[in-house]
Amino acid sequence: MPASRWIAGGIAAFTATAAVATGIVVSTSGDRDGGRAGVAGAAQALPSRPAAVPQGMPYEPAPVPPSRPTLQQTAFSPASYTVKITGQYQSRNNWCVPTSSSISLRTLGVKVSQATLAKKMRTAGPGTTARQALPVLNAYAKPKHLAYRTGDDISTGTRLLAKVRYDAGVLHRATVLGVWADDLPWNARQGFPNHTGHAIVVYGYNATKKTITVWDPWKATGGKHTISAAKLSAVSQKGGMFVLNRTL
């Protein structure tokens, strides 16, 4: 599941922790959106928390564009749609990105295990960066004339819902979203460190109700959840959706 340096966007500064068991990196800036991402400060002990704290994908300071130009998102999307997925729970604390990626790729018709993806993405320590994950994902997506990218504006519920409506409602594909695990409603009592980055799957929506359906691969509190688009946007990493597009 989480870690806490994530995908594209900006966090002012981070402090590396001495979390040997989990490898989680905790932000001390208190600013999840401003400034440049980076690691700063001396190592310090984490506050007490549950023994099984998830880890995930370290934060990336810049978006990684797809290797091929994408088509305009002009197709019509229905008012609601849910992609059929095969849910998985991550086998290891830091495998949220490989697991979410495995679920997403299956909706592209690609069956690849989270273990294989973790190896190809070189997942280690606090998790997997976007720069590690995207080339692997796009190697599988390219033959399908699709491409993943990060860095799109999902700063409001309306903007996030528009992206989900295209990926789920038009392409009929699920994709990966970077969030802050400690801010997810279903983790309210888990005691995660502040700015715990995590990857989940977005695979459905209801535009009338302005809700989004997600799959959280962290078994303790995960599985299927429905959340308002506005709330999901508020707890998402800046630019942290792996937006799918058709390619030329």
TrEMBL record:
Keywords assigned: Signal
Domain Peptidase C39-like: 83-218
Keyword Amino-acid biosynthesis carried by entry: no
Signal sequence segment: 1-21
Protein name: Peptidase C39-like domain-containing protein
Organism: Actinomadura verrucosospora
